[in-house]
Design brief:
By secondary structure, this protein is of the alpha/beta class. It contains 12 helices and 13 strands. It has a single domain, classed as Aldolase class I (TIM Barrel, Alpha-Beta Barrel), CATH 3.20.20.70. Helices cover 34% and strands 16% of the residues. The protein is globular.
């Protein structure tokens, strides 16, 4: 597992291994007012104790109605900063780096009275009908993304990931099937995302890498393909994104034929974007088997691998994936006896 175990550096972010915990909302543990609670503390610190190289904290929203549910995390107020700082400081004690995914759910904000979007069309029949943001309001959202990033830096994050995937607000702007606007944010589908990137870039330290999550393809009928997402990533890379986290789908309407997922199903997308743009990428999607995660790196398909649901089952996924000398330095001292027979 020497690729999984190897160190990695991008700008000033130094990782002890290539294993990433991707953002995963913890909805049902009822964060109040967007503030992480003891569950979130234990949840993230456990994965740090478990040897993870980089944790990306879950979708954290720029305003209350940007949350999927009212139980999600947010960074729209300075009052939210200390609880994030408590998690970040503790995670750092185990040599794990930690970032945060900054987002707005747009028309997928389930508890918003009237969600907002690029469009007035609902994601599907299970979602509320949104209100299309005015041009001026879109600019306001860019500022809210920037302010959330300032708070994230204040809380001590090592990196920020912009959520541009899974049918949330930025995706609702750069999807040709969803965004039918005729203002400048409709004529240039990448403009909103680009402005968010530039705004965040202007307030984070110059040596802090900026990550962005993208759906490489949409699954709805008439959805965009890899060619479109490569064009988007090119724009976003020029605007300042240092690394892409390659996911897919989530845009809302179900296709007539839904593709099945299988181990490594999104890896070819990660490779294609990496090859087309010569940018570093994180691959994600059923990479639970350490041999597959290792091969994804060894074959040059990705620079880092993210392990989602498997890490929900096993907070010590990294300690279990690595063996022998590769694992030795990751084992917290109080647990050393547990790994000696
Ligand atoms: C409980 C849960 C919550 C999730 N929340 C987020 C999220 O906040 N942001 C995001 O981009 N993806 C989210 N995802 C998607 C994961 O980050 C990951 O891309 C997906 O689970 C596929 O990886 P896996 O097969 O390793 O689980 C979530 C997934 C799960 C299972």
């Amino acid at each position: 597992m020497n690729h999984l175990a190897s160190t990695y550096q991008i700008k000033n972010l130094h990782l002890k291994n290539r294993i990433v915990m991707p953002p995963m909302c913890q909805y049902s543990v009822t964060a109040k007012d967007g503030i992480p609670n003891d569950w979130h503390f234990v949840h993230y610190v456990s994965r740090a104790i478990g040897g993870t190289g980089l944790i990306i904290m879950e979708m954290t929203d720029i305003e209350p109605d940007g949350r999927i549910s009212d139980y999600d995390l947010g960074l729209w107020s300075n009052d939210q900063i200390p609880a994030f700082r408590r998690i970040i400081d503790e995670v750092h004690k185990y040599g794990t780096k930690i970032g945060i995914q900054i987002a707005h759910a747009g028309r997928k904000a389930e508890d918003a009275e009237i969600p907002v979007s690029s469009t007035y069309i609902a994601a599907n029949k299970h979602y509320k009908q949104p209100r299309a943001l005015t041009t001026e309001e879109v600019k306001q959202k860019v500022i809210q993304f920037k302010e959330a990033a300032i708070r994230a830096v204040e809380a001590g994050v090592d990196t920020i990931e912009i959520h541009g995937a899974h049918g949330y607000l930025i995706h609702q702007f750069h999807s040709p099937a969803i965004n039918q606007r005729n203002d400048k944010y409709g004529l240039d589908l990448a403009l909103f995302g680009t402005e968010v990137i530039q705004a965040i870039k202007s307030v984070i330290p110059p040596d802090m890498p900026l990550l962005m999550r993208i759906s490489a393809v949409e699954y709805m009928d008439g959805g965009y393909d890899l060619e479109h997402s490569i064009a988007l990533c090119r724009r976003y890379s020029e605007a300042g994104v240092d690394m892409f986290h390659i996911s897919s789908g989530g845009e809302g309407p179900s296709p007539k034929v839904k593709p099945r997922n299988y181990p490594g199903y999104q890896v070819p997308y990660a490779r294609s974007i990496k090859e087309a743009l010569h940018v570093p990428v994180i691959a994600v999607g059923m990479l639970d088997d350490p041999t597959l995660a290792e091969a994804t790196l060894a074959n040059g398909n990705a620079d880092l691998v993210a392990i989602g649901r498997a890490m929900l089952r096993d907070p010590y996924w990294a300690l279990h994936a690595l063996q022998g000398e590769e694992r030795k330095s990751l084992i917290p001292k109080p647990y050393e006896r547990g790994f000696m027979y």
